[in-house]
Design brief:
- The complex is a heterodimer of chains A (254) and B (439).
- In chain A, 35% of the residues lie in helices and 28% in strands.
- Chain A has 254 residues and is an alpha/beta fold.
- Chain A has one domain: P-loop containing nucleotide triphosphate hydrolases (Rossmann fold).
- In chain A, helix 5 packs parallel to helix 6.
- The two termini of chain A are 36 Å apart.
- Chain B is an alpha/beta fold and 439 residues long.
- Among the domains of chain B are: 209 residues, no CATH class; 52 residues, no CATH class.
- Chain B is built from nine helices and 21 strands.
- In chain B, strand 2 and strand 3 form a beta hairpin.
- In chain B, helix 2 packs antiparallel against helix 6, helix 4 crosses helix 5 and helix 7 crosses helix 8.
- Chain B is globular, with a radius of gyration of 21 Å.
- The chains are: A alpha/beta (254), B alpha/beta (439).
- The interface between A and B is medium-sized, with 30 and 22 residues.
């Protein structure tokens, strides 16, 4: 489904990713872990198409297409969804308006009929129930005045409604209490199927108790320095990242 | 400078012809005012950018044309004007073509006793004493050259009188159409709205053109709101992009009256609006709302003044601008709190979005406070569409043009949400979501 080859990325003249190689097959769940500043969020933003990041080398193939040539909106309509680490507040745009427009744009892109009001509403209600969200959030402005947990739930709610083929969760667990974490993870797990793939970017192993990865990769200084199975996450939890840093030839800045 | 003098002489010469055409109708107080006004016009100078109030609005392009004062309506059919009507608006419709009332195109509904909705020329005949009592009392011509021009050439406009305690639920639609047929004309509607004690009504003052032509609209509107009256005024300006639109609205507010103005400015090459409201007694409420969308080389200018002459009044002023291409905007909002006006509450805000690097806005909030127990605030912002919001929407599969529309609509929403007439608000929401689509 997704193949990243020797990806180098720069922002404001500084190289953040220094040769990422990653292959995600259909139906797989990959976790990307790593210390702060290792480039995890950069990778997520690049996959979603944020223009500020400059790809200096390498390629990304998504479902046989050159992803780097697609606009952010086309990537989304091809099935990529990024759950933001910091969801954006947009005053004056209701959650409903955002979702309805997004859903119908995706359907138009696929040559399907747009949803009518009733179909839309029943779909939305079902997904809200999944995430145990209050319906009043629908008419509120996108993320405006939402608590940290509500924002993260809202991301997964959008994801559940848009049903992407590749979901990228960028630190979705950060700032969530244990109940919210369980609800969010449950929402993600409901979407997992042999047709979909998931990339979970996280700092902590905690989330991986709920969303069990097939592969774990450690990103450090813009490179994947170690890959393994789900046990690697537990190992990281026990030993920290230092043993991997030591293996890396360059000195580590604290 | 000589050219400007020539233009003044041009209008003075035209006045002679106009006066002759009036024939027997040249007696009465209206004509006395005309004669005084033309003398003021002669004495006053057209403003230049050296005048503080016109610093950013250069009207030199207006003075390059010899506009001919419009003498009559051109013939239009109902079919010509349907595109300017709103389906679900059930109030009376008054249609003016080139400044003159056209009965055949209008649609006057049955009105309660004590409510008059008619054209100014008819009001002069049928409601002379009311006209005499209010006309020319609020829009001073002695210091305003454009008001002098309006007062000198007054012929027609809209007249609304709602007597004490009367309430009109359906908004009155005043449609001012310009149809130039290639003539460079000057159109000068002159409106007078009088709200009696405890009365209520809503007005839509709507300016449109049939041709994308060069002409000059110079409108003056005077509004008197008596004690406890509620007047909701919407102005929708959709003139030709080549037209000049100079407009003035003067509002007099008596005790506990409530006046709301929504100015929606979309058209005009140069559009200047002077909006002034004065609290003449305690307890008044005044809301001045506005939204302007400019593109190309359009220039929009609003100068407002809220005069807190008396205590215990509230004013709320909020103008928002969305400027594209090389267009320019000017906001100058003055709030005057006089010495006696204790317990004044005045809020003023102007927010602008520049969609291109060449668009420009000059914004100047002015508070002059002479009382010591008041609550006043003002603010102004200038920005661009937020890049993070834009990316967020696009990352959900929403294409750039639609995302722009959504964000522009969101920006404008806290101004247009106050428009209580649904068909007009819906019309605006539609424009907002589509106007800035680049496709």
């Amino acid at each position: 489904m997704l193949e990243i080859k020797d990806l180098h990325v720069r922002i404001e003249g500084k190289e953040i990713l220094k040769g990422i190689n990653l292959k995600v097959n259909t139906g797989e769940i990959h976790a990307i872990m790593g210390p702060n500043g290792s480039g995890k969020s950069t990778l997520a933003q690049v996959l979603a198409g944020r223009e500020e990041y400059e790809v200096t080398k390498g390629e990304i193939i998504f479902k046989g297409k050159n992803l780097l040539k697609l606009s952010p909106e086309d990537r989304a309509r091809e099935g990529i969804f990024l759950a933001f680490q910091y969801p954006v507040e947009i005053a004056g745009v209701s959650n409903t308006n955002l979702l309805k427009t997004a859903l119908n744009e995706a359907r138009k892109y696929r040559g399907e009929e747009e949803l009518d009001a009733i179909e839309f509403l029943s779909l939305i209600k079902e997904k809200m129930k999944l995430l145990e969200m209050d319906q009043t959030l629908l008419n509120r402005s996108v993320n405006e005045g939402f608590s940290g947990g509500e924002k993260k739930k809202n991301e997964i709610f959008q994801m559940a409604a848009l049903e992407p083929t590749l979901a990228i969760l960028d630190e979705t667990d950060s700032g969530l209490d244990i109940d919210a974490l369980r609800i969010v993870a449950n929402g993600v797990n409901k979407l997992i199927s042999p047709e979909r793939s998931t990339i979970v970017i996280t700092h902590y192993q905690r989330l991986l108790n709920y969303i069990v990865p097939d592969f774990v990769h450690v990103l450090y200084k813009g490179k994947i320095v170690k890959s393994g199975g789900k046990d690697l996450a537990l190992e990281l939890e026990n030993k920290g990242y230092d043993w991997l840093k030591e293996k890396n030839s360059e000195p580590v800045k604290s | 400078m000589n050219e400007v003098l020539d233009i003044k002489n041009w209008y003075l010469e035209n006045f002679k012809g106009f006066e002759n055409s009036l024939n027997g109708a040249s007696s009465g107080f209206i004509h006395q005012l005309r004669k005084k006004a033309i003398r003021s016009f002669e004495d006053l100078n057209f403003p230049t950018t050296h005048d503080e109030e016109w610093k950013y609005t250069n009207i030199a392009p207006l003075l390059m044309h010899n506009f001919i004062p419009s003498g009559k309506a051109t013939n239009l059919s109902k079919g010509d004007i349907t595109k300017f009507l709103f389906d679900d608006l059930n109030g009376s419709l008054l249609v003016f073509v080139n400044g003159y009332y056209v009965n055949e195109l209008s649609d006057l509904r049955n009105l309660p006793k004590g409510v008059v909705v008619q054209n100014f020329a008819s009001a002069l005949k049928e409601n002379y004493s009311i006209v005499q009592k209010y006309y020319g009392k609020y829009a001073d011509y002695k210091n305003h050259i454009f008001t002098a021009l309006s007062t000198a050439f007054i012929k027609d406009g809209a007249f609304i009188y709602v007597s004490d305690g009367k309430i009109l639920n359906d908004p009155i639609h005043l449609l001012f159409i310009t149809s130039t047929k290639n003539d460079k004309i000057l159109v000068q509607p002159r409106n007078l709205f009088v709200a009696g004690k405890n009365s209520q009504f809503k007005i839509l003052e709507h300016y449109v053109s049939l041709d994308e032509d060069t002409y000059f609209t110079n409108s003056v509107t005077e509004i008197f709101t008596d004690e406890n009256a509620i007047v909701d005024h919407i102005k929708l300006q959709e003139e030709s992009k080549k037209a000049f639109h100079i407009a003035r609205m003067e509002v007099n507010q008596e005790k506990s009256s409530n006046f709301t103005s929504h100015l929606i400015s979309l058209g005009g090459g140069i559009a200047r609006n002077d909006i002034n409201s004065r609290f003449n007694d305690e307890g008044g409420e005044c809301m001045l709302n506005g939204l302007f969308l400019t593109s190309g080389t359009q220039l929009f200018d609003v100068h407002s003044m809220i005069d807190h002459a008396k205590p215990l009044c509230n004013s709320h002023e909020h103008y928002k601008g969305i400027l594209d291409d090389k267009s320019r905007g000017v906001f100058n909002g003055k709030v005057m709190v006089r010495r006696d006006a204790q317990k004044t509450n005045a809020f003023q805000e102007n927010n602008n979005i520049l969609l291109s690097t060449e668009a420009l806005i000059n914004t100047k909030p002015q508070l002059e406070i002479f009382a010591d127990d008041v609550k006043c605030s003002h603010g102004a912002t200038i920005g661009q569409l937020d890049a993070d919001s834009m990316f967020y929407l696009k990352s959900r599969g929403i294409p750039e043009d639609i995302a722009r529309g959504i964000l522009i609509h969101a920006f404008a929403s806290d101004v247009i949400k106050y428009i209580k007439i649904d068909p007009i608000r819906n019309y605006l929401e539609n424009i907002l979501e589509n106007k800035f689509n680049k496709n």
